[in-house]
């Protein structure tokens, strides 16, 4: 989820109602071949080379899940919106993927553990990101990683989580934390952007 409008409240959005048009945004549906290729290349560099178990939290309609699956990974997606999950299931029908309706901050995966926890544009909107990160860290197998795509959107009333804050929260949880700046890659967003957008890969 991106936040290009100053003052937009993530919590106020009816994601069930948004599901039908969610993929219309260039960085959501990845329907444009250039945008799709740009995200696929980034994902290829962030995910392990070997086939891995990926937990895609706040998966929406499953666009990143599909890219991960196409790269040979086994995907479990979680989203609070049942219509979003239905679209993700349809998008990945026949693939090694499962989608669950649930709270991404506390995903309903039981004792299952993953090689990667992948999250895009969600952590910034959660009330206690430090606590959430600690829980997500517990879902990662030894030698695994957190891949977090975040940013700070808007200029008048900016919303988001700055990279230095996120890396500070990750410091006690991960042995290696790498920040990759994404703002200057217009292909990822379908347009030029001037705000702070980035990815963090944290090896644990």
Quick structural gist:
The chain has 204 residues and is α/β, with parallel strands linked by helices. It contains eight helices and eight strands; from the N terminus they run H-H-H-E-H-E-H-E-E-H-E-E-H-E-H-E. Strand 1, helix 4 and strand 2 form a beta-alpha-beta unit.
Name the descriptors.
204 residues, alpha/beta, 8-stranded mixed sheet, 8 helices, 32% helix, 26% strand, disordered N terminus
Large-scale geometry: globular
- Number of E-type strands: 8
The amount of helix comes to 25-40%
Uncertain spans: 1-8
The rounded Rg comes to: 16 Å
Distance between the termini: 26 Å
**Biggest sheet, in brief?**
8 strands, mixed
Output the helix-strand order. HHHEHEHEEHEEHEHE
Could you give the topology of this structure?
Blueprint: H1 15-22, H2 26-29, H3 33-46, E1 53-57, H4 63-70, E2 74-79, H5 82-91, E3 97-101, E4 114-120, H6 129-138, E5 140-153, E6 159-160, H7 163-170, E7 176-181, H8 186-189, E8 196-203
Helix pairs in contact: 1-5
Task: Describe this protein's structure.
The chain contains eight helices and eight strands; from the N terminus they run αααβαβαββαββαβαβ. The protein is α/β, with parallel strands linked by helices and about 200 residues long. Strands 1, 2, 3, 4, 5, 6, 7 and 8 form an eight-stranded mixed β-sheet that branches. Strand 4, helix 6 and strand 5 form a beta-alpha-beta unit. About 40% of the residues are buried.
């Amino acid at each position: 989820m991106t936040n290009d409008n100053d003052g937009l409240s993530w919590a106020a959005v009816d994601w069930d109602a948004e599901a039908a048009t969610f993929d219309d945004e260039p960085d959501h549906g990845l329907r444009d071949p250039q945008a799709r290729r740009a995200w696929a290349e980034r994902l290829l560099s962030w995910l392990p080379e070997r086939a891995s178990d990926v937990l895609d939290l706040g998966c929406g309609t499953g666009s990143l899940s599909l890219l991960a699956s196409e790269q040979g990974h086994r995907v479990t997606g979680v989203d609070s919106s049942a219509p979003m999950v239905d679209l993700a299931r349809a998008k990945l029908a026949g693939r090694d993927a499962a989608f669950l309706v649930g709270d991404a901050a506390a995903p309903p995966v039981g004792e299952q553990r993953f090689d990667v926890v992948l999250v895009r544009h969600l952590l910034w909107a959660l009330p206690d990101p430090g606590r959430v990160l600690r829980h997500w860290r517990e879902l990662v197998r030894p030698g695994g990683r957190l891949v977090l795509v975040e940013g700070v959107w808007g200029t008048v009333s900016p919303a988001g989580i700055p990279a230095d804050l996120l890396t500070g929260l990750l410091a006690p949880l991960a042995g290696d934390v790498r920040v990759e700046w994404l703002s200057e890659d217009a292909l990822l967003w379908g347009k030029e952007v001037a705000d702070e957008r980035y990815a963090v890969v944290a090896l644990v």
